[in-house]
Amino acid sequence: MSGMIGGQNLWGSKSGIIGQTDLEYEEGTWAPRLNGNDKGLDGTYTKIGNLVRCHCWIWANTTGNEANCILSGLPFSSVRITHFLFNRIRGGNGEYHWGVLDAGGNTIGMMNPSTSSWSNYQASQANWTFTAGGATIVAWDFTYHTSA
Amino acid sequence: MIIDKIDVSKEHKHLSIREISDTGGYHRRSILCNETLADDEHQEVKAKAEEVWTDEVKASWATFQAEQQAETEAE
């Protein structure tokens, strides 16, 4: 399947049907939150059919640790449980952790690397701490499926 | 923000709201059927939630979540 994506709207955002298929295309912004706080995060998304790819980022000096981090504000709810690998860089050092998006959910629970994922953890069981500090870079990019 | 479109998920009637931002681009947010709408939420969103978030839908979502939790605890 291939084709042209629908044209821009009056303001420049793109959406429409891809070629002769029924795959809808859309791109825009969303408002990422860590434990309900924006922390300076910005987000963009691209949706093709039922596939959603989200990006969120900050490059800033952060103040105050955020324990048991839950990333919320996702633009669409998920249709199935999905795991992700994330990285947070501070002062040039990377710190990997993972996250889980519940089936039907719209939040991602951040998990410590040592937390076992075999037991199907849920977002509400988040246990990763976003530690405060200077020169923090977060550029998370993740993909999931929605039914919307 | 101007409400542009409200999509309803098939399974649990969650809302995905597309708005037009001040700069003219699309902005999305989602609300699950067990969440409480803000007092200053757009009237269109409140009306859609009232329409599709029936007691049956909410009960189905609660049951689904309980089943997911049970699976977790069973592992």
Secondary structure: elements and pairs:
The complex is a heterodimer of chains A (148) and B (75).
Chain A: E1 15-17, E2 24-30, E3 33-34, E4 42-48, E5 51-62, E6 70-72, E7 82-90, E8 93-101, E9 108-111, E10 133-145
Chain B: E1 2-8, E2 15-20, E3 26-31, H1 43-52, H2 55-74
Antiparallel strand pairs in B: 1-2, 2-3
Q: Concise description?
A:
With 148 residues, chain A is mainly beta. Chain A is 0% helix and 47% strand.
Which structural category fits the helices and strands of chain A? Answer: mainly beta
Mean pLDDT of chain A: 83
The topology string of helices and strands of chain B comes to: EEEHH
Order of helices and strands of chain A: EEEEEEEEEE
Topology, number of strands of chain B: 3
Rounded to the nearest angstrom, the radius of gyration of chain A is 17 Å
Approximately how much helix is present in the residues of chain B?
A: 40-55%
Q: So what's the oligomer here?
A: heterodimer
Mean pLDDT of chain B: 90
Using brief descriptors, characterize the structure shown.
heterodimer, A: 148 residues, mainly beta, ten-stranded antiparallel β-sheet, 10 strands, 0% helix, B: 75 residues, alpha+beta, three-stranded antiparallel β-sheet, 2 helices, 25% strand, elongated
How is this structure best described in words?
The complex is a heterodimer of chains A (148) and B (75). Chain A is mostly beta strands. Helix content of chain A is 0%, strand content 47%. Chain A contains no helices and ten strands. Chain A has strands at 15-17, 24-30, 33-34, 42-48, 51-62, 70-72, 82-90, 93-101, 108-111, 133-145. Chain A has a ten-stranded antiparallel sheet with strand order 1-2-4-5-10-7-8-9-6-3, with no helix packed on it. In chain A, strand 8 and strand 9 (108-111) form a beta hairpin. Chain A is globular, with a radius of gyration of 17 Å. With 75 residues, chain B is of the alpha+beta class. Chain B has a three-stranded antiparallel sheet, with helices on one face. Chain B starts with a strand and ends with a helix. The mean pLDDT of chain B is 90. Chain A binds chain B through residues 9-13, 15, 26-31, 45, 73-77, 79, 81, 102-106, 118-122, 125, 146-148, and chain B through 7-12, 14, 16, 18, 20-21, 23-32, 61, 64-65, 68-69, 71-72, 75.
